[in-house]
């Protein structure tokens, strides 16, 4: 396969692939653009260690000097977390960044693409992109949704990011045939909060159920991903009404400053952190750690089905 020359697979991940062991992919945008240094490095290492402790292998994905890294060394992780020279790569950016030998953190969409190339079927992130508020006027819809429609990866997250229009995001996923599944919940979690008031089409209560759904979907030739929405632990869940007001305030400020496109999400997350006096950052950390647990369990259950 031509794409292999662009991939550099860390030994730990390569051995897991060779031995057909469960693997969990992780994105790097949360490291380079989602959290401040050095907390980002600490969180990234903790997430990897949680996955290892559950019996799966973590594969943090990034692009360094134009080479796609499937699994990062400690030095590479440090570089991704501390360097200012790191772009943000989605589907459209990958060929340019690779050809120009640049450095980039991978978004949900790009991580899904690379995971698929590496034959990894479970990916853990914080929250996905989706349909932005006022998208009817702006057409601002994340490439993450189209990737979910066509790439065979199960994505475990705490729901769409709180800055989005959850109703429209749900409708978009339904239109493109992406199963939206609540993990031990009946409603879509809204990232910082367990609650949104919007029902999920389906609920599951175990990692085994998730594995069975993944296998059935892809055995039937139904191309595309599965979105598994795992709510933030109750202890760290923020009040839905409070966080919505803060998000509205951040969005209004972004509009006043003319901030759009790739710059919008990092600005909004930073502003929300400021307005919540750091509470949103703590919530972000706890939900990604929780997602790592569930993602590892799902990867293990799906892996068992491949051995039957």
**Which residue ranges are poorly predicted, with pLDDT under 50 across at least 5 consecutive positions?**
none
Amount of beta strand: 5-15%
Percentage of residues in helical conformation? 40-55%
In the CATH hierarchy, what is the superfamily? Indigoidine synthase domain
Distance separating the two termini: 28 Å
**Shape descriptor:** globular
- Which CATH class is shown? Alpha Beta
Care to describe what's here?
With 308 residues, this protein is α/β, with parallel strands linked by helices. The protein has a single domain, classed as Indigoidine synthase domain (Indigoidine synthase fold), CATH 3.40.1790.10. The protein contains 13 helices and 11 strands. Strands 1, 2, 3, 4, 5, 6, 7, 8, 9, 10 and 11 form an 11-stranded mixed sheet that branches. A hairpin with a 2-residue loop joins strand 3 (57-64) and strand 4 (67-70). Helix 3 (39-54) runs parallel beside helix 13, helix 6 (108-117) runs parallel beside helix 8 (143-150) and helix 10 (207-219) crosses helix 13 (279-306). It is globular, with a radius of gyration of 18 Å.
Give a nutshell description of this structure:
With 308 residues, the protein is α/β, with parallel strands linked by helices.
Features of the shown structure:
alpha/beta; 308 residues; eleven-stranded mixed β-sheet; single chain
């Amino acid at each position: 396969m031509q794409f292999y020359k662009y991939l550099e697979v860390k030994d730990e991940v390569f051995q897991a692939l060779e031995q057909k062991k469960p693997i969990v992919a992780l994105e790097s945008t949360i490291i380079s653009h989602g959290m401040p240094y050095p907390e980002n490095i600490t969180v990234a290492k903790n997430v990897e260690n949680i996955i290892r402790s559950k019996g799966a292998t973590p594969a943090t994905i990034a692009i360094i000097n134009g080479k796609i890294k499937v699994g990062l060394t400690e030095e590479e992780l440090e570089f991704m977390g501390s360097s200012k020279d790191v772009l943000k790569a989605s589907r459209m950016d990958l060929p340019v960044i690779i050809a120009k030998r640049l450095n980039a953190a991978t978004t949900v969409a790009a991580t899904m693409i690379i995971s698929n190339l590496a034959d990894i079927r479970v990916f853990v992130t914080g929250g996905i992109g989706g349909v932005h508020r006022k998208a009817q006027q702006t057409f601002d819809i994340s490439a993450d949704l189209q990737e979910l429609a066509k790439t065979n990866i199960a994505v475990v997250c705490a729901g769409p990011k709180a800055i989005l229009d959850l109703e429209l995001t749900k409708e978009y996923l339904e239109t493109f045939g992406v199963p939206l599944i609540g993990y031990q919940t009946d409603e879509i979690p809204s990232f910082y909060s367990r609650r949104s008031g919007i029902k999920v089409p389906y609920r599951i209560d175990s990692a085994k159920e998730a594995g069975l759904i993944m296998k059935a979907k892809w055995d039937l030739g139904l191309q595309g991903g599965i979105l598994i929405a795992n709510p933030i632990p109750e202890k760290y869940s923020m009040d839905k009404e409070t966080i919505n007001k803060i998000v509205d305030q951040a969005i209004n400020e972004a509009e006043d400053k003319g901030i759009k496109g790739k710059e919008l999400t990092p600005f909004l997350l930073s502003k929300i952190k400021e307005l919540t006096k750091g509470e949103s950052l703590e919530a972000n950390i706890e939900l990604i750690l929780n997602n790592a647990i569930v993602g590892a369990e799902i990867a293990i259950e799906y892996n068992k089905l491949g051995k039957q």
